[in-house]
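Hey all, sorry for the wall of text incoming. These are the two entities for the joint prediction.
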Amino acid sequence: MKKVFNIPTKVCSDFDGYSFFSELDNYFNGCIKEQIALDFSKTTWFEANLCAALGALINKAENKFNQIRFVKLSSSLKDIFSRNHFLANFGGAKIPDHNSTTIKYRKNKIIEDKLIKEFLDRELIDKPDFPKLSEPAKYEIIRSIFEIYSNAVIHGDCEYVYSCGQFYPNKIPPRIDFTIVDIGKSIKKNVNDFLNSDLTGVDAILWALADNNTTKPKAKNIPGGLGLKIICEFARLNKGKVQIVSNNGYWQQTVSGESSKSLFHAFPGTLVNLEFNLDDKSFYYLKDEPIEEIIF
Amino acid sequence: MKTNEIIIRIFDEVGSDSAISVDDGDNVFKKIDGAISAGLTVVLDFQNINLIITAFLNACIGQLYSKYSSEELRKHLHVENVSSENNHLFVKVIKRAKEYFENPEEFDQSINDVLGDE
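and here's what came out:
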């Protein structure tokens, strides 16, 4: 039987947008061997960085032999989803991005570290509008983004990491959003398994964000931790944003401070959205820190 | 080079200026482990490495603390040509690895530091 799921009028990188994705996954969970049409007829705005979440959820649903189709995509959405190569992964076309406003949709196997690095250099950090960074600061930002990818691999225990980004030059202030998604073990599951506790999704995220906390299994003999500190600090100075969605937990750090909420349905893994403010003429460099001797 | 010493060049091991792969870190760990087990001293040379992520260092160096004491590592392992920007990563990773393997119970208590008595 053919099924139809209506995509909302607006899908943004905010609590409502992430609630939509958790609702979509909840819907997909009830489908096996179905033909499902995602109906975009009412959708006038869909933030293209969120293709990372949409692609991840569709792949998850396809693993249960469901066939997913996009129907009634507006010409502008079709254009952007083709320019960021999202549709190309689902039988559609890819077209050149002459405006250079997209950061391509990527589904990376976890072993492609070097490709991910090249991709981040080319598509994000080296873009002319990106805030100016000294070389060491640039490496720190890339390092932080890598920590997110490696968290997905080490903690999420998943096969693929999905990412996608979008420049919004006409927003006030102009910004880039870059979203990374894994459909693996959520932070809530990892933290509760590790602590043998029953924390909420939000509390589990707060625990994982604290410096030095890690759920990396001791059996692997590789210590972990040292997560998102630098990227959160950069986002604070840049007046950008960091958002984390995992299971039913939602946490964000914005220019107004930190806030968190619980989603009604669980998101099946972890989503990290980084928002960079492009109206920022600052030049970022790393504070000189005293060089400590490396003593084993 | 001394006869009982080997140099592991990270640039050569990872094939670029970026030490970002856990697998590469794991491979270097195995080389260090093999050499120390054979009674050799290892020099880890980070010349020409610009980007290092902690996941690499955790695999490459942090993991050593599961097998060797600080004293043994101080005797058999040296790092060279670490840039000033990356220096703090080594210090953090080593500090954390020591804590991790020496006081595992502290990690189980750390929830209280974050969530208080909630």
